[in-house]
Write a structure and sequence with these properties.
The chain contains three helices and three strands, in the order βααββα. It is of the alpha+beta class. The chain has one domain.
């Protein structure tokens, strides 16, 4: 799956899409103000990869929930305000999602929630 259930999956009864979107995107922001998931695609060598990742995020915004099969992964969860909070992005190199990437997403989720945005 394109998203990881461990850091995803909240549904608020009666929530409505905003402007046709199923969920709104929010980039995780560090205490220093950096947005690592926004910066990550910019570091990729191929413009095609950057565009594809952006298109995939847009697809989820307007067509949530769905499964996707790509090498690039962006881990996110949907918060209580029905926003897709992008926690971590990486290039998947093995069948199993690396524990370090899952732990970083979990840590970013906890940090985001503690900021109570």
């Amino acid at each position: 799956m394109w998203y990881i259930r461990l850091v995803a999956d909240q549904h608020i009864e009666g929530a409505r899409p905003l402007g046709g979107k199923r969920v709104t995107v929010v980039f995780f922001r560090t205490q220093a103000g950096g947005e690592p998931v926004r910066q990550w695609p910019k570091s990729l060598p191929l413009d095609e990869d950057r565009k594809r990742i952006g298109a995939d995020i847009k697809t989820v915004e307007f067509g949530w929930p769905l499964g996707m099969n790509r090498i690039a992964r962006v881990l996110f969860y949907v918060d209580g305000k029905q926003r897709m909070v992008l926690l971590h992005g990486f290039i998947k190199k093995t069948q199993k999602t690396p524990d370090e990437d899952l732990e970083l997403a979990r840590r970013n989720k906890r940090n985001y929630q503690q900021g109570d945005r």
